Automatic annotation (TrEMBL):
Record-annotated Ras-associating domain positions: 115-165
Keywords: Guanine-nucleotide releasing factor
Signal peptide annotation: none
Annotated GO MF terms: guanyl-nucleotide exchange factor activity
SUPFAM superfamilies (alphabetical): Ras GEF (SSF48366), Ubiquitin-like (SSF54236)
The N-terminal Ras-GEF domain, residue ranges: 1-81
Superkingdom of this protein's organism: Eukaryota
PROSITE patterns: RA (PS50200), RASGEF_NTER (PS50212)
Species for this entry: Cinclus mexicanus
Gene name, Swiss-Prot/TrEMBL: Rapgef4_1
Name this polypeptide is given: RPGF4 factor
Amino acid sequence: YHAQPSQGTEQEKMDYALNNKRRVIRLVLQWAALYGDLLQEDEAAMAFLEEFYVSVSDDTRMIAALKEQLPELEKIVKQISEEPKASQKKHKVLLQLFNTSDDRTQKRQPIRGGDEVLFKVYCIDQTYTTIRVPVSSSVKEVISAVADKLGSGEGLIIVKMSSGG
């Protein structure tokens, strides 16, 4: 974020620094937008975001061109740092399909509707449980299985995560 070229005029050095700072701010904004809920549970990530916001705020006093990105950064930091309200009583659940066998040694076979898959179900309190459901299960059936396992179906949210966000 604070990279400075060793050569060039003062104006070139300032332009270089400004472009680098803008790129880093954009990257942090995209990262926070994609992983906001997960970052909320990570103290190191939250500390980084708050420290980064303070650093960018300080830089806007010297580099006015950064002011245009400050409100968006502030909004993201505030949004992520807000604790979920107790009155919502929603369970944020993340399902992760996992395979316990080694793909290289497993004999390839077609998947049938009666085959079962194992899911890890992550809860907001950083605990998890596992459920086993048929491959052909509907979303309602998966949520019902999770509700049975957790003892409550009130306010369950099913979330799918992929590498593309």
